[in-house]
Amino acid sequence: MTDSTRIAFLPAVEPGDEAREPSNGEPRGRCFAFAGSEMLVTARLDGISAVPTWEELRGWNIAPIRYQYLGTLGCEPCWSAELSPDGDFPERTALTNLRSLYDSLPEVDYAIAGRAIQVVVWERDHQFCGRCGAPTERVAGERGRRCLECDLTAYPRLTPAIIVLIERGSRILLARSHAFVPRRFGIVAGFVEPGESLEDAVRREVREEVAIEIADIAYFGSQPWPFPHGIMIGFRAQHLRGEIVLADGELAEAGWYGLNDLPVIPTKLSIARRLIDDWAGRCGAVIDQP
Ligand SMILES: [Zn+2]
């Protein structure tokens, strides 16, 4: 999320508190609505996607299954909503995967959409208690759902993952996963395990995936990764010792690459790309890839 996003979008002071939501009858403002993992947008002639308003939804006879107040953008209330995938959607709208909206949604809208889908999915999946199976209800004053029987309260889940750019002289470590689109390389990443510090997770993932030791682990930045509920925490590190040995099954290929022999790297959607662009910038270069 950029600084401009943080300034422009004000999350609800006490998320989930109905009393603080705009309450003049029906909800108004913009509605970040999802059917499954796809977001309802209207397509504009200039190729930009727009987030529909509640007025538009009502005009199209679309009634969400449930909806949540997110906060305000400027003075405009913003909501998330869950739609039935079987609904009828008008011709000039499209249900689109959030990842592929990166290039067509304005940046601030994309950031709010990432928040919206996580709230929608969390509330959909926590209608019943994970401990005893009884129905849950919203907790006033916070984004939580409490069990009516046993009082267990569930909050939106975030899954932290680390991602690390490793430098060795004028080269960086790039790796290709079996899961990536063909030819595209990325950098080492993985989920943080219970009881582990972020730095421990960085060292462990690097050992597991390429069997080298690193030093000078330094925080770089972070990025919400709503696919479906991640937060990526980015680091830089230096190669300390060892040569690359691939772990069975994890990676298809890995190696040390310089500015002059870079393969296809991640798009600008990801923090992996920000880390690589930052390295290139420190080398006085700009990478000419989308
Ligand atoms: Zn319960």
- Radius of gyration based on Cα positions: 22 Å
Coarse morphology: globular
Cα(first) to Cα(last) distance is 19 Å
Reading off the top of the CATH hierarchy, the class of the largest domain is best stated as Alpha Beta
**Average pLDDT taken over every residue:** 89
Total number of helices: 5
For the sheet with most strands, the description reads: 7 strands, mixed
Small-molecule binders here are: zinc ion
The low-pLDDT segments are 1-7, 14-20
Query: What's the helix-strand series?
Result: HEEEEHEEEHEEEEEEHEEEH
According to DSSP, the number of beta strands is 16
Identify the CATH architecture of the largest domain.
Answer: Alpha-Beta Complex
Strand percent estimate: 25-35%
CATH topology of the largest domain: Nucleoside Triphosphate Pyrophosphohydrolase
The level of helicity is 10-25%
Instruction: Give the number of domains.
Output: 2
Structure class:
alpha+beta
CATH superfamily of the largest domain, called what?
Nucleoside Triphosphate Pyrophosphohydrolase
